[in-house]
Recover the amino acids of this structure.
């Protein structure tokens, strides 16, 4: 099953997967988080707001941003015409820098870890025997990247099966499907949609629920509680176009018959 998406729907999903990728893969810094907070980036999303998990993830992320603005005594939506730049004010705020330092420590603890991360973002951690890194799943994911001319920057030093990288790859596939659809290349658009289905089914969905539960258990800030819930909801919502839904009772994704 593949529910065709129009160009606008694909563009909106593409953006959301790209944002989700950055939230997981990139260490938070003052400048980027200041821009998120000042623009209230998480007040809404262009795709997935029909999902309760997406809405809850956004609520938590936006709430953290609102609290950070309040703690730094900066008003969101500052009037640029009057020379007021809320993001710049946040960058200069010691209180905001302290909030971002807390996020950085949490990102490291959850997703990187001095030893074992509390909520590893690596597929291998969940599906390989003894959590073996650089195994067959990494090789399969790397091959998928290369078919589309992609190679991770730290090849052979970092596993390719990081959830952030894989969400970024899905964003790329969605973008390619959109471009094919806009060029009226239906055959290629269908093939790209099928590839997304296979990639989600084989490499993302089988372990997404355990990852999400680990984030819920170990996250201490609403920011990363929101990230976990938003990422899960986004992937689950997008998977529905392929007839796949999360079975709460079985705690697993299943394809509708």
């Amino acid at each position: 099953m593949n529910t065709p998406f129009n160009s606008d729907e694909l563009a909106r999903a593409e953006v959301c997967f790209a944002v989700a990728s950055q939230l997981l893969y990139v260490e938070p810094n003052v400048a980027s988080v200041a821009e998120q907070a000042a623009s209230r980036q998480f007040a809404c999303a262009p795709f997935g707001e029909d999902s309760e998990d997406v809405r809850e993830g956004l609520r938590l992320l936006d709430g953290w941003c609102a609290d950070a603005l309040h703690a730094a005594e900066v008003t969101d939506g500052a009037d640029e015409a009057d020379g007021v730049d809320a993001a710049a004010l946040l960058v200069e705020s010691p209180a905001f820098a302290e909030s971002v330092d807390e996020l950085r420590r949490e990102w490291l603890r959850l997703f990187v870890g001095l030893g074992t991360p509390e909520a590893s973002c690596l597929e291998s951690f969940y599906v390989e025997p003894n959590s073996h890194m650089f195994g067959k799943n990494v090789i399969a994911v790397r091959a998928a990247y290369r078919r589309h001319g992609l190679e991770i920057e730290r090849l052979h030093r970092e596993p390719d099966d990081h959830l952030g990288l894989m969400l970024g790859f899905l964003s790329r596939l969605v973008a390619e499907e959109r471009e094919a659809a806009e060029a009226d290349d239906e055959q290629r658009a269908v093939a790209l949609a099928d590839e997304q289905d296979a990639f989600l089914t084989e490499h993302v969905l089988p372990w997404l629920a355990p990852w999400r539960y680990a984030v819920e258990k170990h996250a201490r800030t609403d920011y990363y509680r929101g990230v976990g819930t938003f990422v899960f909801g986004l992937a689950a919502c997008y998977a529905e176009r392929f007839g796949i839904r999360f079975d709460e009772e079985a705690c697993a994704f299943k394809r509708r018959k």
In short: Residues 7-255 form a domain with the TorD-like fold (CATH 1.10.3480.10). DSSP finds ten helices and two strands in the chain. Residues 79-83 have pLDDT under 50 and may be disordered.
